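request received
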Amino acid sequence: MPERAIGVFDSGVGGLTVLKEIQRLLPSEDLLYLGDTARVPYGTKSPATVRRYAQEAAAFLTRRKVKMLVVACNTASSVALLELENHYNLPVIGVIEPGAKRAVSVTRTGRIGVIGTEGTVKSGAYTLAIKKLAPDADVVALPCPLFVPLVEEGWLEHPVTRLTAEEYLGPLRHHGIDTLVLGCTHYPLLKNVLQQVLGPEVILIDSAEETAFAVAERLQRQRCVRDAAAAQPPQFFVTDVPERFQRVGGEFLGRPLPKVEQVCLD
Amino acid sequence: MPERAIGVFDSGVGGLTVLKEIQRLLPSEDLLYLGDTARVPYGTKSPATVRRYAQEAAAFLTRRKVKMLVVACNTASSVALLELENHYNLPVIGVIEPGAKRAVSVTRTGRIGVIGTEGTVKSGAYTLAIKKLAPDADVVALPCPLFVPLVEEGWLEHPVTRLTAEEYLGPLRHHGIDTLVLGCTHYPLLKNVLQQVLGPEVILIDSAEETAFAVAERLQRQRCVRDAAAAQPPQFFVTDVPERFQRVGGEFLGRPLPKVEQVCLD
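response:
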Protein backbone atom coordinates (compact mmCIF):
# COMPACT_ATOMS: atom_id res chain seq x y z
CA MET A 1 0.00 0.00 0.00
CA PRO A 2 2.61 2.69 0.88
CA GLU A 3 4.03 2.41 -2.64
CA ARG A 4 0.75 3.38 -4.25
CA ALA A 5 -0.02 6.89 -5.47
CA ILE A 6 -2.36 9.46 -3.95
CA GLY A 7 -5.32 10.33 -6.20
CA VAL A 8 -6.39 13.97 -6.33
CA PHE A 9 -9.38 15.33 -8.23
CA ASP A 10 -11.10 18.62 -8.95
CA SER A 11 -13.55 20.01 -11.50
CA GLY A 12 -10.65 21.68 -13.29
CA VAL A 13 -7.39 23.48 -12.56
CA GLY A 14 -8.19 24.83 -9.07
CA GLY A 15 -7.16 21.67 -7.24
CA LEU A 16 -3.62 22.13 -8.51
CA THR A 17 -3.10 24.49 -5.55
CA VAL A 18 -3.74 21.49 -3.29
CA LEU A 19 -1.53 19.20 -5.38
CA LYS A 20 1.27 21.75 -5.12
CA GLU A 21 1.10 21.82 -1.31
CA ILE A 22 1.02 18.01 -1.08
CA GLN A 23 4.09 17.84 -3.31
CA ARG A 24 5.90 20.37 -1.15
CA LEU A 25 5.09 18.61 2.13
CA LEU A 26 5.41 15.03 0.85
CA PRO A 27 7.99 15.01 -1.95
CA SER A 28 8.25 11.22 -1.91
CA GLU A 29 4.62 10.58 -2.74
CA ASP A 30 3.48 9.69 -6.26
CA LEU A 31 0.44 11.69 -7.34
CA LEU A 32 -2.36 11.27 -9.88
CA TYR A 33 -4.43 14.35 -10.68
CA LEU A 34 -7.77 14.33 -12.49
CA GLY A 35 -9.47 17.55 -13.67
CA ASP A 36 -13.02 17.10 -14.98
CA THR A 37 -12.60 19.90 -17.52
CA ALA A 38 -15.35 18.66 -19.86
CA ARG A 39 -17.95 19.37 -17.16
CA VAL A 40 -16.36 22.23 -15.20
CA PRO A 41 -17.58 24.15 -13.19
CA TYR A 42 -19.19 22.17 -10.35
CA GLY A 43 -20.01 25.25 -8.26
CA THR A 44 -23.22 26.15 -10.11
CA LYS A 45 -24.51 22.58 -10.37
CA SER A 46 -26.84 20.65 -8.08
CA PRO A 47 -25.60 18.40 -5.24
CA ALA A 48 -27.00 15.33 -7.05
CA THR A 49 -25.09 16.09 -10.24
CA VAL A 50 -21.86 16.96 -8.40
CA ARG A 51 -22.18 13.69 -6.44
CA ARG A 52 -22.47 11.74 -9.68
CA TYR A 53 -19.42 13.48 -11.14
CA ALA A 54 -17.41 12.94 -7.94
CA GLN A 55 -18.31 9.23 -7.96
CA GLU A 56 -17.12 8.92 -11.55
CA ALA A 57 -13.88 10.74 -10.78
CA ALA A 58 -13.27 8.56 -7.72
CA ALA A 59 -14.01 5.42 -9.73
CA PHE A 60 -11.44 6.45 -12.33
CA LEU A 61 -8.74 7.04 -9.71
CA THR A 62 -9.46 3.91 -7.67
CA ARG A 63 -9.25 1.77 -10.81
CA ARG A 64 -5.66 3.00 -10.88
CA LYS A 65 -5.09 1.62 -7.38
CA VAL A 66 -4.53 4.79 -5.38
CA LYS A 67 -4.02 4.50 -1.62
CA MET A 68 -5.95 7.66 -0.80
CA LEU A 69 -8.45 10.03 -2.42
CA VAL A 70 -8.09 13.80 -2.05
CA VAL A 71 -11.16 15.79 -3.07
CA ALA A 72 -9.39 19.03 -4.00
CA CYS A 73 -12.63 20.84 -4.84
CA ASN A 74 -14.69 22.68 -2.26
CA THR A 75 -18.02 22.06 -3.98
CA ALA A 76 -17.42 18.30 -4.29
CA SER A 77 -16.06 18.14 -0.72
CA SER A 78 -19.21 19.94 0.47
CA VAL A 79 -21.72 17.53 -1.00
CA ALA A 80 -19.98 14.23 -1.84
CA LEU A 81 -17.37 13.48 0.83
CA LEU A 82 -19.46 11.26 3.09
CA GLU A 83 -20.75 9.27 0.15
CA LEU A 84 -17.23 8.66 -1.16
CA GLU A 85 -16.03 7.61 2.30
CA ASN A 86 -18.88 5.13 2.56
CA HIS A 87 -18.38 3.79 -0.94
CA TYR A 88 -14.62 3.25 -0.98
CA ASN A 89 -12.51 1.36 1.47
CA LEU A 90 -9.88 4.11 1.37
CA PRO A 91 -9.05 7.29 3.29
CA VAL A 92 -10.86 10.22 1.67
CA ILE A 93 -9.65 13.74 2.47
CA GLY A 94 -11.66 16.84 1.55
CA VAL A 95 -10.75 20.51 1.77
CA ILE A 96 -13.56 21.71 4.07
CA GLU A 97 -12.54 20.25 7.42
CA PRO A 98 -8.87 21.37 7.20
CA GLY A 99 -9.93 24.93 6.32
CA ALA A 100 -12.51 25.02 9.11
CA LYS A 101 -9.97 23.73 11.64
CA ARG A 102 -7.47 26.40 10.69
CA ALA A 103 -10.07 29.18 10.82
CA VAL A 104 -11.12 28.15 14.33
CA SER A 105 -7.52 28.05 15.50
CA VAL A 106 -6.63 31.55 14.26
CA THR A 107 -9.78 33.59 14.94
CA ARG A 108 -9.65 35.85 17.98
CA THR A 109 -13.19 37.24 17.86
CA GLY A 110 -14.96 34.12 16.57
CA ARG A 111 -16.39 36.07 13.65
CA ILE A 112 -15.50 33.99 10.62
CA GLY A 113 -16.38 34.69 7.00
CA VAL A 114 -16.55 32.00 4.33
CA ILE A 115 -16.65 32.67 0.59
CA GLY A 116 -17.22 29.99 -2.03
CA THR A 117 -19.30 28.86 -4.99
CA GLU A 118 -23.09 28.80 -4.88
CA GLY A 119 -22.95 25.02 -4.30
CA THR A 120 -20.46 25.20 -1.44
CA VAL A 121 -22.29 28.00 0.36
CA LYS A 122 -25.74 26.44 -0.10
CA SER A 123 -24.52 23.13 1.32
CA GLY A 124 -23.70 24.81 4.65
CA ALA A 125 -20.71 22.46 4.96
CA TYR A 126 -18.24 25.09 6.24
CA THR A 127 -20.65 26.48 8.83
CA LEU A 128 -21.31 22.94 10.05
CA ALA A 129 -17.60 22.05 10.20
CA ILE A 130 -16.72 25.29 12.02
CA LYS A 131 -19.61 25.00 14.50
CA LYS A 132 -18.60 21.42 15.27
CA LEU A 133 -15.22 22.70 16.47
CA ALA A 134 -16.41 26.02 17.93
CA PRO A 135 -20.16 26.02 18.64
CA ASP A 136 -20.14 29.72 19.55
CA ALA A 137 -18.47 30.87 16.34
CA ASP A 138 -20.37 33.48 14.34
CA VAL A 139 -20.10 32.33 10.72
CA VAL A 140 -21.22 34.28 7.64
CA ALA A 141 -20.97 32.40 4.34
CA LEU A 142 -21.44 34.16 0.99
CA PRO A 143 -21.29 32.96 -2.62
CA CYS A 144 -18.96 34.85 -4.99
CA PRO A 145 -19.82 33.39 -8.43
CA LEU A 146 -17.74 35.85 -10.46
CA PHE A 147 -14.41 35.12 -8.75
CA VAL A 148 -13.80 31.88 -10.67
CA PRO A 149 -14.36 33.40 -14.14
CA LEU A 150 -12.23 36.43 -13.11
CA VAL A 151 -9.34 34.15 -12.15
CA GLU A 152 -9.76 32.14 -15.35
CA GLU A 153 -9.66 35.42 -17.31
CA GLY A 154 -6.36 36.21 -15.57
CA TRP A 155 -7.67 39.50 -14.13
CA LEU A 156 -6.00 38.87 -10.77
CA GLU A 157 -5.45 42.55 -9.90
CA HIS A 158 -7.76 44.22 -12.41
CA PRO A 159 -10.04 47.14 -11.43
CA VAL A 160 -13.04 44.97 -12.35
CA THR A 161 -11.87 42.36 -9.84
CA ARG A 162 -11.40 44.98 -7.14
CA LEU A 163 -14.87 46.44 -7.74
CA THR A 164 -16.39 42.94 -7.68
CA ALA A 165 -14.57 42.12 -4.45
CA GLU A 166 -15.84 45.35 -2.87
CA GLU A 167 -19.39 44.41 -3.80
CA TYR A 168 -19.14 40.81 -2.58
CA LEU A 169 -17.13 41.44 0.60
CA GLY A 170 -19.03 44.53 1.76
CA PRO A 171 -21.38 42.55 4.03
CA LEU A 172 -18.44 40.60 5.55
CA ARG A 173 -16.52 43.78 6.30
CA HIS A 174 -19.68 45.23 7.80
CA HIS A 175 -20.04 42.12 9.95
CA GLY A 176 -16.58 42.67 11.42
CA ILE A 177 -15.03 39.29 10.58
CA ASP A 178 -11.39 38.76 11.59
CA THR A 179 -10.88 35.58 9.54
CA LEU A 180 -11.94 34.68 5.99
CA VAL A 181 -11.94 31.14 4.63
CA LEU A 182 -11.21 31.07 0.89
CA GLY A 183 -13.65 28.24 0.24
CA CYS A 184 -12.78 27.65 -3.40
CA THR A 185 -9.43 26.56 -4.80
CA HIS A 186 -9.44 29.44 -7.31
CA TYR A 187 -9.61 32.16 -4.68
CA PRO A 188 -6.02 32.09 -3.36
CA LEU A 189 -5.01 33.68 -6.68
CA LEU A 190 -7.06 36.73 -5.64
CA LYS A 191 -5.36 37.04 -2.23
CA ASN A 192 -3.85 40.47 -2.94
CA VAL A 193 -7.13 42.08 -3.94
CA LEU A 194 -9.10 40.39 -1.14
CA GLN A 195 -6.57 41.50 1.47
CA GLN A 196 -6.63 45.06 0.15
CA VAL A 197 -10.44 45.20 0.24
CA LEU A 198 -10.75 43.63 3.72
CA GLY A 199 -7.75 45.34 5.29
CA PRO A 200 -4.53 43.83 6.68
CA GLU A 201 -6.06 42.74 10.01
CA VAL A 202 -8.27 40.04 8.45
CA ILE A 203 -6.56 36.63 8.19
CA LEU A 204 -7.14 34.76 4.91
CA ILE A 205 -7.31 30.97 5.14
CA ASP A 206 -6.23 28.97 2.11
CA SER A 207 -7.33 25.34 2.52
CA ALA A 208 -4.59 23.97 0.25
CA GLU A 209 -1.82 24.00 2.85
CA GLU A 210 -4.11 22.69 5.61
CA THR A 211 -5.32 19.91 3.37
CA ALA A 212 -1.73 18.83 2.71
CA PHE A 213 -1.19 18.60 6.50
CA ALA A 214 -4.33 16.47 6.80
CA VAL A 215 -3.05 14.18 4.04
CA ALA A 216 0.34 13.79 5.76
CA GLU A 217 -1.25 13.10 9.13
CA ARG A 218 -3.59 10.46 7.77
CA LEU A 219 -0.81 8.70 5.84
CA GLN A 220 1.27 8.52 9.01
CA ARG A 221 -1.65 7.29 11.09
CA GLN A 222 -2.31 4.53 8.56
CA ARG A 223 1.43 3.74 8.17
CA CYS A 224 1.11 4.47 4.48
CA VAL A 225 3.93 6.98 3.98
CA ARG A 226 6.00 6.10 0.93
CA ASP A 227 9.58 5.25 1.77
CA ALA A 228 11.50 6.51 -1.25
CA ALA A 229 13.96 9.23 -2.07
CA ALA A 230 11.82 11.05 -4.59
CA ALA A 231 8.49 10.60 -6.35
CA GLN A 232 7.75 10.18 -10.02
CA PRO A 233 6.45 13.39 -11.63
CA PRO A 234 2.66 13.62 -11.08
CA GLN A 235 0.41 12.15 -13.77
CA PHE A 236 -2.28 14.50 -15.05
CA PHE A 237 -5.62 13.49 -16.56
CA VAL A 238 -8.41 15.70 -17.90
CA THR A 239 -11.78 15.04 -19.52
CA ASP A 240 -11.58 17.75 -22.22
CA VAL A 241 -8.63 18.36 -24.53
CA PRO A 242 -5.55 19.35 -22.48
CA GLU A 243 -4.61 22.74 -24.06
CA ARG A 244 -6.61 25.06 -21.83
CA PHE A 245 -5.80 23.04 -18.68
CA GLN A 246 -2.12 23.24 -19.49
CA ARG A 247 -2.23 26.97 -20.10
CA VAL A 248 -4.30 28.02 -17.06
CA GLY A 249 -2.93 25.21 -14.88
CA GLY A 250 0.61 26.39 -15.34
CA GLU A 251 -0.37 29.63 -13.58
CA PHE A 252 -1.86 27.72 -10.67
CA LEU A 253 1.15 25.48 -10.28
CA GLY A 254 3.67 28.24 -10.91
CA ARG A 255 5.51 26.14 -13.50
CA PRO A 256 4.73 24.50 -16.85
CA LEU A 257 2.67 21.31 -16.72
CA PRO A 258 4.12 18.14 -18.22
CA LYS A 259 2.15 15.77 -20.46
CA VAL A 260 -1.59 15.76 -19.76
CA GLU A 261 -3.73 12.85 -20.93
CA GLN A 262 -7.38 13.12 -21.98
CA VAL A 263 -9.73 10.46 -20.56
CA CYS A 264 -13.47 9.77 -20.62
CA LEU A 265 -15.43 9.33 -17.37
CA ASP A 266 -19.04 9.04 -18.56
CA MET B 1 -44.39 15.72 -40.63
CA PRO B 2 -45.95 19.22 -40.23
CA GLU B 3 -47.60 18.10 -37.01
CA ARG B 4 -44.30 17.27 -35.36
CA ALA B 5 -42.57 19.60 -32.93
CA ILE B 6 -39.44 21.70 -33.50
CA GLY B 7 -36.52 20.67 -31.27
CA VAL B 8 -34.37 23.46 -29.84
CA PHE B 9 -31.23 22.98 -27.74
CA ASP B 10 -28.63 25.04 -25.93
CA SER B 11 -26.03 24.48 -23.22
CA GLY B 12 -28.36 26.17 -20.73
CA VAL B 13 -30.85 29.04 -20.53
CA GLY B 14 -29.43 31.30 -23.27
CA GLY B 15 -31.29 29.56 -26.10
CA LEU B 16 -34.58 30.59 -24.53
CA THR B 17 -34.15 33.94 -26.32
CA VAL B 18 -34.32 31.99 -29.59
CA LEU B 19 -37.27 29.89 -28.41
CA LYS B 20 -39.12 33.09 -27.49
CA GLU B 21 -38.69 34.54 -30.99
CA ILE B 22 -39.78 31.30 -32.66
CA GLN B 23 -42.90 31.26 -30.48
CA ARG B 24 -43.67 34.85 -31.39
CA LEU B 25 -43.25 34.30 -35.13
CA LEU B 26 -44.75 30.81 -35.30
CA PRO B 27 -47.38 30.52 -32.56
CA SER B 28 -48.84 27.31 -34.03
CA GLU B 29 -45.62 25.30 -33.75
CA ASP B 30 -45.05 22.84 -30.91
CA LEU B 31 -41.62 23.22 -29.34
CA LEU B 32 -39.26 21.02 -27.33
CA TYR B 33 -36.39 22.74 -25.55
CA LEU B 34 -33.35 20.99 -24.10
CA GLY B 35 -30.80 22.80 -21.90
CA ASP B 36 -27.66 20.80 -21.08
CA THR B 37 -27.36 22.39 -17.64
CA ALA B 38 -25.29 19.56 -16.14
CA ARG B 39 -22.43 20.41 -18.53
CA VAL B 40 -22.92 24.14 -19.12
CA PRO B 41 -21.02 26.19 -20.35
CA TYR B 42 -19.93 25.04 -23.82
CA GLY B 43 -18.04 28.27 -24.63
CA THR B 44 -14.84 27.32 -22.78
CA LYS B 45 -14.75 23.72 -23.98
CA SER B 46 -13.02 22.19 -26.98
CA PRO B 47 -14.70 21.70 -30.38
CA ALA B 48 -14.47 17.91 -29.98
CA THR B 49 -16.25 17.95 -26.62
CA VAL B 50 -18.91 20.42 -27.78
CA ARG B 51 -19.51 18.23 -30.85
CA ARG B 52 -20.05 15.20 -28.63
CA TYR B 53 -22.50 17.11 -26.43
CA ALA B 54 -24.36 18.50 -29.46
CA GLN B 55 -24.68 14.98 -30.90
CA GLU B 56 -26.12 13.71 -27.64
CA ALA B 57 -28.58 16.61 -27.45
CA ALA B 58 -29.65 16.07 -31.06
CA ALA B 59 -30.06 12.34 -30.46
CA PHE B 60 -32.33 13.05 -27.50
CA LEU B 61 -34.54 15.40 -29.52
CA THR B 62 -34.71 13.23 -32.64
CA ARG B 63 -35.78 10.25 -30.54
CA ARG B 64 -38.80 12.42 -29.78
CA LYS B 65 -39.54 12.72 -33.50
CA VAL B 66 -38.95 16.42 -34.09
CA LYS B 67 -39.28 17.75 -37.64
CA MET B 68 -36.39 20.22 -37.32
CA LEU B 69 -33.39 20.89 -35.07
CA VAL B 70 -32.54 24.41 -33.95
CA VAL B 71 -29.07 24.80 -32.45
CA ALA B 72 -29.79 27.81 -30.24
CA CYS B 73 -26.21 28.06 -28.98
CA ASN B 74 -23.51 29.99 -30.78
CA THR B 75 -20.66 27.73 -29.66
CA ALA B 76 -22.43 24.55 -30.77
CA SER B 77 -23.54 26.19 -34.04
CA SER B 78 -19.92 27.23 -34.65
CA VAL B 79 -18.40 23.79 -34.37
CA ALA B 80 -21.13 21.14 -34.75
CA LEU B 81 -23.67 22.34 -37.33
CA LEU B 82 -22.24 20.61 -40.38
CA GLU B 83 -21.82 17.35 -38.53
CA LEU B 84 -25.43 17.43 -37.32
CA GLU B 85 -26.67 18.20 -40.83
CA ASN B 86 -24.74 15.25 -42.20
CA HIS B 87 -25.86 12.90 -39.45
CA TYR B 88 -29.59 13.61 -39.38
CA ASN B 89 -32.02 13.55 -42.23
CA LEU B 90 -33.65 16.73 -40.93
CA PRO B 91 -33.31 20.47 -41.44
CA VAL B 92 -30.79 21.85 -38.93
CA ILE B 93 -30.79 25.60 -38.25
CA GLY B 94 -27.98 27.32 -36.35
CA VAL B 95 -27.67 30.89 -35.10
CA ILE B 96 -24.48 31.93 -36.94
CA GLU B 97 -25.70 32.25 -40.52
CA PRO B 98 -28.83 34.29 -39.66
CA GLY B 99 -26.76 36.72 -37.55
CA ALA B 100 -24.11 37.05 -40.26
CA LYS B 101 -26.76 37.69 -42.92
CA ARG B 102 -28.35 40.45 -40.88
CA ALA B 103 -24.99 42.09 -40.11
CA VAL B 104 -24.10 42.20 -43.79
CA SER B 105 -27.47 43.71 -44.69
CA VAL B 106 -27.29 46.55 -42.14
CA THR B 107 -23.61 47.59 -42.19
CA ARG B 108 -22.82 50.75 -44.13
CA THR B 109 -19.04 50.80 -43.72
CA GLY B 110 -18.43 47.04 -43.85
CA ARG B 111 -16.65 47.16 -40.47
CA ILE B 112 -18.35 44.49 -38.42
CA GLY B 113 -17.53 43.44 -34.86
CA VAL B 114 -18.38 40.04 -33.44
CA ILE B 115 -18.33 39.14 -29.74
CA GLY B 116 -18.79 35.63 -28.39
CA THR B 117 -17.37 32.87 -26.22
CA GLU B 118 -13.81 31.67 -26.59
CA GLY B 119 -15.09 28.65 -28.55
CA THR B 120 -17.20 30.67 -30.96
CA VAL B 121 -14.47 33.23 -31.68
CA LYS B 122 -11.72 30.62 -32.06
CA SER B 123 -13.83 28.67 -34.56
CA GLY B 124 -13.86 31.65 -36.94
CA ALA B 125 -17.41 30.67 -37.93
CA TYR B 126 -18.84 34.21 -37.95
CA THR B 127 -15.96 35.65 -39.95
CA LEU B 128 -16.37 32.85 -42.48
CA ALA B 129 -20.15 33.29 -42.72
CA ILE B 130 -19.85 37.08 -43.11
CA LYS B 131 -17.03 36.86 -45.69
CA LYS B 132 -19.07 34.37 -47.71
CA LEU B 133 -21.79 37.00 -48.11
CA ALA B 134 -19.52 40.06 -48.26
CA PRO B 135 -15.93 39.15 -49.16
CA ASP B 136 -14.73 42.73 -48.58
CA ALA B 137 -16.14 43.01 -45.06
CA ASP B 138 -13.66 43.95 -42.35
CA VAL B 139 -14.50 41.63 -39.43
CA VAL B 140 -13.02 41.81 -35.92
CA ALA B 141 -14.07 38.98 -33.57
CA LEU B 142 -13.29 39.09 -29.84
CA PRO B 143 -14.04 36.71 -26.96
CA CYS B 144 -15.80 38.20 -23.89
CA PRO B 145 -15.66 35.32 -21.35
CA LEU B 146 -17.00 37.35 -18.40
CA PHE B 147 -20.26 38.41 -20.04
CA VAL B 148 -22.00 35.06 -19.48
CA PRO B 149 -21.21 34.89 -15.72
CA LEU B 150 -22.19 38.58 -15.38
CA VAL B 151 -25.59 37.87 -16.95
CA GLU B 152 -26.04 34.77 -14.79
CA GLU B 153 -25.24 36.91 -11.73
CA GLY B 154 -27.99 39.30 -12.83
CA TRP B 155 -25.63 42.30 -12.97
CA LEU B 156 -27.18 43.55 -16.21
CA GLU B 157 -26.49 47.26 -15.57
CA HIS B 158 -23.94 47.03 -12.75
CA PRO B 159 -20.79 49.23 -12.71
CA VAL B 160 -18.70 46.03 -12.88
CA THR B 161 -20.47 45.10 -16.12
CA ARG B 162 -19.91 48.55 -17.57
CA LEU B 163 -16.20 48.48 -16.69
CA THR B 164 -15.86 45.00 -18.16
CA ALA B 165 -17.63 46.09 -21.35
CA GLU B 166 -15.31 49.10 -21.67
CA GLU B 167 -12.31 46.80 -21.38
CA TYR B 168 -13.59 44.22 -23.87
CA LEU B 169 -15.10 46.62 -26.42
CA GLY B 170 -12.26 49.17 -26.46
CA PRO B 171 -10.51 47.56 -29.46
CA LEU B 172 -13.81 47.38 -31.41
CA ARG B 173 -14.57 51.04 -30.77
CA HIS B 174 -11.04 51.87 -31.80
CA HIS B 175 -11.52 49.87 -35.00
CA GLY B 176 -14.55 51.99 -35.93
CA ILE B 177 -17.12 49.22 -36.35
CA ASP B 178 -20.67 50.29 -37.23
CA THR B 179 -22.29 46.90 -36.52
CA LEU B 180 -21.80 44.45 -33.66
CA VAL B 181 -23.00 40.84 -33.75
CA LEU B 182 -23.96 39.58 -30.28
CA GLY B 183 -22.59 36.10 -30.91
CA CYS B 184 -23.84 34.48 -27.72
CA THR B 185 -27.44 34.04 -26.62
CA HIS B 186 -26.69 35.59 -23.22
CA TYR B 187 -25.48 38.89 -24.61
CA PRO B 188 -28.82 40.48 -25.64
CA LEU B 189 -29.49 40.91 -21.91
CA LEU B 190 -26.52 43.31 -21.82
CA LYS B 191 -27.82 45.42 -24.75
CA ASN B 192 -28.20 48.61 -22.70
CA VAL B 193 -24.65 48.59 -21.36
CA LEU B 194 -23.14 47.56 -24.71
CA GLN B 195 -25.01 50.32 -26.53
CA GLN B 196 -23.91 52.90 -23.96
CA VAL B 197 -20.28 51.86 -24.24
CA LEU B 198 -20.25 51.73 -28.07
CA GLY B 199 -22.45 54.75 -28.68
CA PRO B 200 -25.89 54.97 -30.34
CA GLU B 201 -24.59 54.81 -33.91
CA VAL B 202 -23.43 51.18 -33.67
CA ILE B 203 -26.13 48.65 -34.60
CA LEU B 204 -26.38 45.60 -32.32
CA ILE B 205 -27.41 42.34 -33.99
CA ASP B 206 -29.26 39.79 -31.89
CA SER B 207 -29.34 36.45 -33.72
CA ALA B 208 -32.50 35.24 -31.98
CA GLU B 209 -34.96 37.12 -34.19
CA GLU B 210 -33.03 36.31 -37.37
CA THR B 211 -32.89 32.66 -36.44
CA ALA B 212 -36.68 32.60 -36.03
CA PHE B 213 -37.03 34.01 -39.56
CA ALA B 214 -34.69 31.29 -40.85
CA VAL B 215 -36.81 28.65 -39.11
CA ALA B 216 -40.02 30.02 -40.64
CA GLU B 217 -38.54 30.21 -44.11
CA ARG B 218 -37.22 26.65 -43.99
CA LEU B 219 -40.54 25.27 -42.73
CA GLN B 220 -42.35 26.97 -45.58
CA ARG B 221 -39.86 25.77 -48.16
CA GLN B 222 -40.24 22.20 -46.92
CA ARG B 223 -44.03 22.55 -46.61
CA CYS B 224 -43.75 21.65 -42.95
CA VAL B 225 -45.66 24.53 -41.36
CA ARG B 226 -48.10 23.25 -38.76
CA ASP B 227 -51.70 23.96 -39.62
CA ALA B 228 -53.33 24.51 -36.23
CA ALA B 229 -54.84 27.35 -34.29
CA ALA B 230 -52.41 27.27 -31.40
CA ALA B 231 -49.52 25.17 -30.16
CA GLN B 232 -49.20 23.17 -26.98
CA PRO B 233 -47.06 24.94 -24.36
CA PRO B 234 -43.36 24.16 -25.01
CA GLN B 235 -41.86 21.15 -23.24
CA PHE B 236 -38.67 21.87 -21.32
CA PHE B 237 -35.90 19.37 -20.53
CA VAL B 238 -32.66 19.92 -18.62
CA THR B 239 -29.79 17.65 -17.60
CA ASP B 240 -29.30 19.05 -14.07
CA VAL B 241 -32.06 19.62 -11.52
CA PRO B 242 -34.53 22.23 -12.82
CA GLU B 243 -34.47 24.89 -10.02
CA ARG B 244 -31.70 27.11 -11.32
CA PHE B 245 -32.89 26.81 -14.94
CA GLN B 246 -36.37 27.82 -13.91
CA ARG B 247 -35.11 30.81 -11.92
CA VAL B 248 -32.64 32.23 -14.45
CA GLY B 249 -34.67 31.04 -17.45
CA GLY B 250 -37.69 33.02 -16.32
CA GLU B 251 -35.63 36.20 -16.79
CA PHE B 252 -34.62 35.19 -20.30
CA LEU B 253 -38.16 34.32 -21.32
CA GLY B 254 -39.73 37.27 -19.54
CA ARG B 255 -42.28 35.04 -17.82
CA PRO B 256 -42.28 32.09 -15.41
CA LEU B 257 -41.32 28.72 -16.87
CA PRO B 258 -43.77 25.83 -16.61
CA LYS B 259 -42.82 22.32 -15.58
CA VAL B 260 -39.23 21.39 -16.46
CA GLU B 261 -38.18 17.73 -16.64
CA GLN B 262 -34.71 16.43 -15.79
CA VAL B 263 -33.22 13.93 -18.26
CA CYS B 264 -29.90 12.15 -18.71
CA LEU B 265 -27.96 12.39 -21.99
CA ASP B 266 -24.71 10.57 -21.25
